[in-house]
Amino acid sequence: MTITNKEFPKGFLWGGATAANQLEGAFDQDGKGLSSADLVAYIPKDQRKKDNAIEITSDEIEKILSGEKVARYPKREGIDFYHRYKEDIALFAEMGFKVFRLSLNWARIFPNGDDQEPNEAGLKFYDDVFDELHKYGIEPLVTLSHYETPYGLTEKYNGWLGREVIGCFERYAKTVFTRYKDKVKYWLTFNEINMITLSPFTGGGIVSDRTEHPLQAQYQGLHHQFVASALVTKACHAIIPGAKIGCMLARMETYPNTPNPLDVRKAQLENQMNLFFTDVHARGEYPNYMNRFFKENQISIKKEDGDDEILKEYTVDYVSFSYYMSLTASASPEGERAQGNLFGGVKNPYLESSDWGWQIDPIGLRIMLNDMYDRYQKPLFLVENGLGAYDRVEEDGSIHDDYRIDYLRKHIEQMREAIEDGVDLMGYTSWGPIDLVSMSTSEMTKRYGFIYVDLDDDGNGTLKRSKKDSFDWYKKVIESNGVEL
């Protein structure tokens, strides 16, 4: 534990972040419909063709739904938060959480996505969760869409490729805003909205082989998400006065590999392509630099009258993001590549890597926070950051995860430096405060939590919760408002 004299701002929101499809389970209980995540099978590491297996084809879907494909679908099981939420929230409260980020599973509330009436059992579940959080003085931070597109919308419209889905999302959002207006004041629209261009099925329920021009489909689906986000931002402010609603980006700060202007230009372009999403959310319009990209890739965004005005008028209140790593760009095809789920780039020799090949860069967080605040002049919120690692349970049941403490400490130190630089940072929710199913690989072995869950990659285990060393460490961090690291 490092002791400093530097406190975080009063009211700083400390907590943790999760997603419904990675922890709830109960995928077919109380009227819930199928979501995109429920169709993602676990593939053992030695059988993977690449480090992630989250895209899906029409043939695979047909085999899954017919029962022909026999596999495990870990996101259907999660860690049984659905039945154990009181136990888990009590542990979060023991750590002193000020905020808990969770998502609503859209298909739990509107089973097919386009239902005219919501499923009361689904609404009641989240009522109970919010009540339990408030019992301990924990504010919910709620994501409306976190890789949980109802499969019914994929079947009917090919997910967000269909403009009809905007109206479905509006109905869903207005329903939950009205229902929870006295319980939730912090909202997010789409989790890591840039995922739709990396994995269209994960980010938007789009099956690429059902489209003639997959890249066009990604950006058209994205446009529909932009419009939907702006419309529900409008609705949130109308239904819940005083509420704050933001966007969310998977942020990867990209460095040039060398001072070679070609490397610098490549890094600049990578950063522009990453910040495009928050440019639209926070500035309210498509940036000019995207015109060339669209032209060179034969992409023509179909807009309806009024779309541009909607985007301009209803921008977000704050900008949130995940930060796990930085990337390095090189114009040269040579050079050792960094290995990481979904994201690659040239290996940075100045950085260490996690067990999964993600390059660890705490100072990059400070750089990124300064850049984003300069760019948007809106409050920022770091809503995902953490270390996926192998954890070992000792004979006495203890789990010594000093590597996780070290990772988090270094990132929190850089957050504080950024605040002293002048950045307006609302809070910090570390990813996976309790072990949960990995988004990209659907495995349990890749653990992030302060709380260990007895469950392995094959679904075996008691689901018993136990504290790691990082549990008491994070408790002291929160208790001291960042003075004790």
TrEMBL record:
Molecular function in Gene Ontology: beta-glucosidase activity
Highest taxon listed in the record's lineage: Bacteria
Active site location: 384 (nucleophile)
BP term (GO), one: carbohydrate catabolic process
Keyword Iron-sulfur attached: no
Entries under InterPro entries matching the protein: GH, GH_1_N_CS, Glyco_hydro_1, Glyco_hydro_1_AS
Any one of the GO CC terms: cytosol
NCBIfam families: PRK09593.1, PRK09852.1
Family to which this protein belongs: Belongs to the glycosyl hydrolase 1 family.
Protein name: 6-phospho-beta-glucosidase
